[in-house]
Amino acid sequence: MSSRLTMILAGFFLVAALLAGYWGLRLSRPAEPVAVPSPTVDASAAAAQQAPTPAAPPEPARSPIVVLRKAVAANTPITADDVLVEQLQVVPGEAFHSTEQVLGRSSARPLAAGTWLEESNFHAGGPLARMIRPHERAVAVAVDDVIGAAGQLRPGDYVDVLLFLREENSNPQASAQVVLPALRVLSVDSQTGLANDGRPAQSAEDVKARREQQSMSGAATRTVGLAVPAALASRLMLAAQAGTLRLAVRSADEQLLARYWAGQQADTQVLAAGRDLYRFSQLSQVPVAGAAAASGAPAMQIIRGAQAGAATPTP
User: Fold this and answer.
1) CA 168, CA 166: separation in Å to the nearest integer?
2) Of all residues in the chain, what percent carry a pLDDT higher than 90?
3) CB contact set of 194 (below 8 Å; sequence gap of 6+)
4) Where in this protein does the record put region Disordered (predicted)?
5) Within 13 Å and on the Cβ side, how many CA atoms surround 241?
6) Comparing C-alpha atoms, which of 109, 108, 117, 123 is closest to residue 82?
7) How many angstroms separate the first and last alpha carbons of the chain?
């Protein structure tokens, strides 16, 4: 083979090698990412596709009410720093609506912070005085677990007052009777019911203060407050001194409390008490001394306290 042919073949193989290298280099490069055209978004179409936002409900109407910013002691004039005006949806009918209505006024009882003010806050009288009506009297009776119906009495219950007379020298035979029927329970110890305006007669702070005072003094006196008709208050006093009292709870099915709040409780309670009452003189069984005169005419009796005797005829 001639040298010329050899040179031609070498040039051919060199060109082929260059082409092969170039082609391999092109194949080894990563593919360029193809840009995907983003679709054109129509603003009006997007707004139409969105769900409509529901309209907010209208704000309920609110009314001003005067509320105590801090606690106020009894018999202390109210100042502008003690009160504020709140906007509430539900406002009591008797509530004050401006601070000018309460400035300078004082309450006969302490008022707790957060209390909404009304005219009844400035009425004088304690809890029991605000729980009875003009024809009633509040009378307290000392009780224990036996007298007070096993300690299960609650304000608003109705009880019958029973009197037990022991057998004594002046009372040969023991006896019992209903002295006062259907008396409303106002309080049991420091627990009270509702006042005449339908609100609690005592606040939680008042009850707590009274309990703390009783615990500090060590007094464990248990009492029950009863609403007694004015005409029968003295009868309860006499019964408490004559013998032993018991309180008999009446059934709630009688609806006596509902009738009381409806104003249906009339003077029938007083009439029934007078009709059913045995006289203390009948229960005491005072012995009658002396016999009738021989002629059959009744002898005159002279009674001095618990002693009775026949009159001595004068010649």
Assistant:
1) 6
2) 12
3) 131, 155, 156, 200, 201
4) 192-219
5) 6
6) 117
7) 202
Q: What is the spatial distance between Cα 86 and Cα 224, in angstroms, rounded to a whole number?
A: 39
Residues 107 and 121 sit within 8 Å (Cβ to Cβ): yes
Q: How many CA atoms lie within 13 A of 32 on its CB side?
A: 3
How does the average pLDDT of the chain come out, rounded? 76
Cα–Cα nearest to 202, from 112, 93, 117? 112
Q: Tell me, what's the pLDDT at 57?
A: 77
Residue that wins the pLDDT comparison between 195 and 1:
195
User: Which residues neighbour 297 within 8 Å (Cβ) at sequence distance 6 or greater?
Assistant: none
β-strand partners of 163: 177, 245
The number of angstroms, rounded, from the C-alpha of 38 to the middle of its chain's C-alpha atoms is 70
In sequence order, the 6+-apart residues with CB closer than 8 A to the CB of 94 are: 118, 119, 120
The DSSP string of 239-285 is HHHHSEEEEEEPPGGG-HHHHHHTT---THHHHHHHHHPPPHHHHHT
